[in-house]
């Protein structure tokens, strides 16, 4: 990106598996040498990178900062139940990042976005905490907390994703007077190939336009979209000027769609 670390003014780390539950972004910024940067974590599970990129774009568009680094990183191997072969084999660890900078309106790559969440579905995917009472004496009681293992109702998450991803992108495209025919690449959170195929079919996008590296890395949560995008740019598939329809979805339940003009 040809950006000096000291020129970075904002670092957002999208993660659900931080090294420090109080936030890992400040330590990351320090390691990058981004001594002037505001740094904070953003937790939105597999939608995290989209949420973080949209958040950073608002800082840049408002003039609050000129240069931001957005990172999607997760280490879900810390939280899977290795005795549950129905879930542990699905997930991987990874990290990806992008740099965004202020530009003129006609060169703004983020054409549009749509974010959402539905807490009534939180029970279908997550890592929940448990509290154990601790007697403090004199009739007072505290608690000691710990987290369990990642649990997922695959059937319900699949149903949610196959409905929400194409719905959000259809609405976004319509809002910008576009259709699936205008999309050069479809980039979804790398959770399940059948979800990608289903969304492509509903959007009228040929399967050969799906960016997928799921078979290489598994579901890397917030890292999956930037990892796949980086590979597609590096190998020459994604070219300047092309339109990418992108959607993240996952625990929360949460979802986020965006249209990117590369």
From TrEMBL:
InterPro entries registered for this protein in UniProt = ACP_syn_III_C, ACP_syn_III_N, Thiolase-like
Query: Is Lipid biosynthesis found in the keyword set?
Result: yes
* Entry-linked CDD domains: KAS_III
Keywords (alphabetical) are: Fatty acid biosynthesis, Fatty acid metabolism, Lipid biosynthesis, Lipid metabolism, Transferase
Q: Which domain of life is it from?
A: Eukaryota
Coiled-coil segments, which residues? none
The record's Pfam families line, in alphabetical order, gives: ACP_syn_III, ACP_syn_III_C
Which stretches make up the Beta-ketoacyl-[acyl-carrier-protein] synthase III C-terminal domain?
173-262
The identity of this protein, by name, is: Beta-ketoacyl-[acyl-carrier-protein] synthase III
Species assigned in the record: Polarella glacialis (Dinoflagellate)
């Amino acid at each position: 990106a040809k950006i000096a670390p000291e020129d970075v003014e904002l670092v957002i780390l999208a993660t659900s598996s931080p090294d420090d539950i109080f936030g890992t972004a400040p330590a990351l910024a320090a390691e990058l040498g981004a001594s002037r940067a505001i740094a904070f974590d953003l937790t939105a599970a597999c939608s995290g990178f989209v949420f973080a990129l949209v958040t950073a774009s608002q800082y840049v568009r408002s003039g609050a900062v000129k240069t931001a680094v957005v990172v999607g990183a997760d280490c879900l191997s810390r939280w899977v139940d290795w005795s549950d072969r129905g879930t542990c084999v699905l997930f991987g660890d990874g990290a990806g990042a992008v740099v965004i900078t202020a530009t003129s309106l006609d060169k703004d790559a983020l054409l549009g976005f749509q974010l959402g969440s539905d807490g009534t579905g939180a029970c279908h995917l997550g890592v929940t905490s448990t509290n154990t009472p601790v007697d403090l004496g004199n009739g007072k009681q505290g608690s000691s907390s710990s987290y369990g293992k990642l649990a997922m109702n695959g059937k319900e998450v699949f149903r949610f994703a196959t409905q929400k991803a194409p719905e959000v992108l259809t609405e976004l495209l319509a809002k910008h007077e576009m259709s699936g025919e205008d999309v050069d690449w479809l980039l979804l959170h790398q959770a399940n190939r059948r979800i990608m195929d289903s969304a492509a079919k509903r959007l009228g996008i040929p399967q050969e336009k799906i960016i997928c590296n799921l078979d290489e890395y598994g579901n890397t949560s917030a890292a999956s979209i930037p990892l796949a995008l980086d590979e597609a740019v590096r190998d020459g598939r994604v070219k300047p000027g092309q339109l990418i329809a992108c959607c993240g979805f996952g625990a929360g339940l949460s979802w986020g769609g965006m249209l990117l003009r590369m």
